[in-house]
Automatic annotation (TrEMBL):
Keywords: Hydrolase. Transmembrane segments: none annotated. Pfam families: Sulfatase. Belongs to the sulfatase family. This is Sulfatase N-terminal domain-containing protein.
């Protein structure tokens, strides 16, 4: 089962039911998913009405003439029927309905993505922190205004923690914990929308450089927590470099669908993480490649401690950088001039491994539409 946000029209190529899932509950429109108080969600291809009349928009402005210093001016951005509650409940129902057979539950929560929508009861504990952050008024654009954005962001993260806890508790209640692999991770670094989410205040990426939209480590390096009692030793840690493409072959090997170390066709560019998860021993990946047509056009290549970063590709003002993450995890010192041989090696490898894309062209290399630009 899948819970996610997808393209706007049900029945499209991206519809989860057209991508191998048996059931779906949640959003299927990225814009729609910016509201946590929408007027409906999707169950498979049927709209399920929510008790938000009217719906709280993901993008909004304060009412004309309102005082941004008055918390009452933000009352219009509180709804009744919180979508994450509905989605979490549907996930619990799915676990109960499938407890007697193997299942795959994909639960990509929209929390804590903006807009900053969270029930007042969840906000209250964080208001006591006394942070006195300035209100987010959306005067210069962005998502829905909020009177206490720092408290709202913290409360949304706590809500995510709580939702994950509910699912884990349900696995315990159903006596499925010992036979269930649980993977928790994030899709990117903290947002760059600093008026809504104060990454500096929260020290969101620590010493790393970059935020969401960047191929610096702060934009792409995220923690991953994996649990399977009896199969994965508790309390162990690893800094093994991996990507989301590694989870398909990992799940295939864990479930016995295929021994991907003998036949890796199911994994594409991914590698099974079973060895590092179970024994903490695994040969490092030969490389980890990323490209992003957005934000000016970027690509990066990681090989061992070395990382190549090329930016502004679609702007005609390319910059090329080389970092040693072992000695410089914050990517502060560009070593391109000092290590031309390593720069050449990684640049050549990029040419060998990347494939053209018509849907998401990386200019100037590819030709195609404007998606991702």
């Amino acid at each position: 089962m899948v819970f996610a946000e997808y393209s706007d029209n049900s029945g499209s190529e991206g519809d989860p039911l057209n991508q191998g899932f048996d059931h779906f509950f949640g959003y299927n429109c990225q814009r729609h998913a910016h509201s946590y108080y929408p007027d409906y969600l999707w169950q498979d291809r049927r709209k399920i009405p929510l008790q938000n009349q009217p719906a709280v928009p993901g993008h909004a402005k304060l009412p004309p003439g309102s005082d941004p210093r008055n918390p009452a001016a933000y009352a219009a951005f509180q709804g009744t029927d919180y979508a994450p509650d509905r989605i979490r409940s549907a996930a619990v129902d799915f676990l109960r309905a499938n407890k007697e057979r193997p299942f795959f539950l994909y639960f990509p929560s929209t929390l804590p993505h903006v807009a900053l929508h969270v029930p007042q009861a969840d906000l209250e504990p964080w208001l006591k922190q006394g942070w006195h952050d300035p209100p987010f008024t959306a005067a210069r654009g962005g998502y829905t205004p909020h009177f206490t954005p720092r408290a709202a962001y913290a409360a949304m993260i706590s809500r995510l923690d709580s939702d994950v806890g509910v699912l884990l508790d349900e696995l315990d209640r159903l006596q499925l914990t010992e036979n269930t692999l649980v993977v928790f991770s994030a899709d990117n670094g903290t947002t760059h929308l600093s008026e809504e989410v104060d990454a500096e205040f929260f020290n969101s990426v620590g010493e790393l450089r970059g935020l969401k939209g960047s191929l610096y480590e702060g934009g792409v390096r995220v923690p991953t927590i994996v649990s399977w009692p009896g199969r994965i030793p508790a309390g162990t840690e690893s800094d093994f470099v991996s990507g989301f493409e590694d989870w398909m072959p990992t799940l295939a090997e864990f479930t016995g669908a295929r021994d991907v170390r003998r036949n890796d066709s199911i994994g594409g560019d991914g590698v099974s993480l079973v060895p590092v998860l179970t024994t903490l021993q695994q040969t490092e990946r030969p490389w980890l490649y990323r490209e992003f047509p957005g934000y000016g056009g970027q690509l990066s290549l990681r090989q061992g401690p070395w990382k190549l970063v090329r930016q502004n590709l679609s702007k005609g003002s390319e910059t090329t950088e080389l970092y040693n993450l072992e000695t410089d995890p914050g990517e502060r010192t560009n070593l391109a001039a000092e290590h031309p041989e390593k720069l050449t090696t990684l640049s050549t490898l990029v040419t060998e491994i990347r494939r053209p894309s018509k849907l998401f062209p990386l200019r100037p290399f590819d030709q195609g539409g404007d998606r991702g630009q």
